Amino acid sequence: MTPTDLLGEWELHRHVDDRRAGVDGTVTGTTTLTATGPDEVRWDETGTMTFDGRTVPVSRTLRVRRDDSGRWTVHFADGRVFHDWVWGSEVSHACAPDDYSGVLTGDTEHWTVRWSALGPAKDYVLSSDLRRRSHPAD
User: Fold this and answer.
1) What is the pLDDT of residues 74-115, one digit of tens each?
2) pLDDT at 138
3) E strand or H helix at 110, and its extent?
4) Structural domains of the chain, with CATH
5) What are the residues whose beta carbons fall under 8 Å from the beta carbon of 135, sequence distance 6 or more?
6) Could you give the C-alpha distances from 8 to 11, 67, 89, 128, in angstroms and in order?
7) Which tens digit of pLDDT belongs to each residue from 56-68?
8) Residue 72, SS3?
9) Pairing of strands 40-51, 110-118
10) What is the pTM of this model?
């Protein structure tokens, strides 16, 4: 599965399990994947996070880029590499001193993203469930 297979708008439900703080939370909102060129997909998330008795708006933008070899990589909005786009297999994100591992799985109508962070500063799991709202316009 490539990022271009997932273009369109998605209903986002994320569960946040902060084991260090002993607090659960949720994010609900929308994820939109939009082709910005033949080798780039913009990944936008907007929503509301409820965590530890507070509710706040949240958003982020990622870019998924294909290199000359055909490999896709996810980047933060500022251009830093986040992780390789590998469907169905574990990926990692280097951010010392903590270890991050994630996996993207599913199909073109329903997919999930699961991240876990473990180390001296963090101990949490983010589980995102995405269900298609719409396909991109032709």
Assistant:
1) 999 999 999 999 999 999 888 888 999 999 999 999 999 999
2) 56
3) strand 110-118
4) 3-134 (2.40.128.20)
5) 7, 8
6) 10, 22, 23, 17
7) 999 999 999 999 9
8) strand
9) unpaired
10) 0.91
Q: For tokens 């986002």, what's the residue?
A: 12
Q: Which two tokens stand for residue 57?
A: 């708006």
Type of residue found at 27: V
Task: For the sheet with 123-134, list strands across it.
Answer: 81-84, 72-76, 54-66, 40-51, 23-37, 8-18, 123-134, 110-118, 98-106, 91-95
Pull the structure tokens for residue 28.
Answer: 């609900």
CA–CA distances in Å: residue 19 to residues 23, 93, 125: 7, 19, 8
Question: Position 7: which residue type?
Answer: L
DSSP assignment of 35-48 equals EEETTEEEEEEEEE
